[in-house]
Amino acid sequence: AKQMQIKKVEHIHAHYASHPALAAWIINKISGITYSVTIHSHDIYDCHAMLDIKLKDALFLAPISYYNIKYLEELLGKWVKEKCHVVRCGVDLEKYESSQKTVDSKDGVFKILQIGSLHWKKAQVYLVQVMASLRKRGVPFHLTIIGEGQERTSIESEIKKHQLENHITLVGAKRQDEVARILPQSDCYVQSSVSEGIPVAIMEAMACELPVVSTKITGIPELVLDGETGILVPANDVANMANALEKLYNDPNLCLAMGKRGKNWVAEEFTLENNGKKLVALFERFVIKEMASPNS
After folding, report:
1. pTM score
2. Which of 105, 121, 161, 171 is 20 to 30 Å apart from 21, CA to CA?
């Protein structure tokens, strides 16, 4: 707090309502420097310690989804809604190329992709079971999972259990530029998570015009519009997720249409540029106003 006063810091913006917001709150109490908070997912779903105090004392809150506003309103009270202004996470569309696939370009194997840490919240063990169901239905597919994490052994065991070694590849962590090259080579993106905010990985997939099959949880339905940019299914529902993937495999025209609508929706609502401007506007509205106040 003293260093910030020496450097004449006038406002702090904390990403995450957990420890970063706590640090900002403490600095505010010591120095009077104002703060605001971007709210993601686990920072409010998993940790409620001092949450009401940290959020009440902020100048404004920038949750990434309307789901988060509803969640906080139910948890803390209606007062929180008035402090909230949705600012999405986003992607730079220029970094992603659209898929070059056409209705006639299918090579016989349905290429499915998932990106994310190998973690129980991502539910990749359940996703392997979905793939086992697809194989029983006679759908020729290959699933590539990009990411690394503590659940690798469990996922590999599930793959071996269902004898899917030739159908599922765990390629480990990749750089963003590598991910951007892999995405357009895929036919479909799948998100099997049981807990999320709004995954940037889905935004990246939609930026490449991939149709999405995802679990219908938290803020994901604000990105994946069911029946328009993808298909939503209940979490841990093997049959319904397999149904959705099989439907896309059997209907290339639907894949193309969903992919184009998905890219348009990301361009409208989920770009870094547009959401950066929204955050700047909030700083101008609240921080500059606070600085101009006679009591500041």
Report:
1. 0.92
2. 121
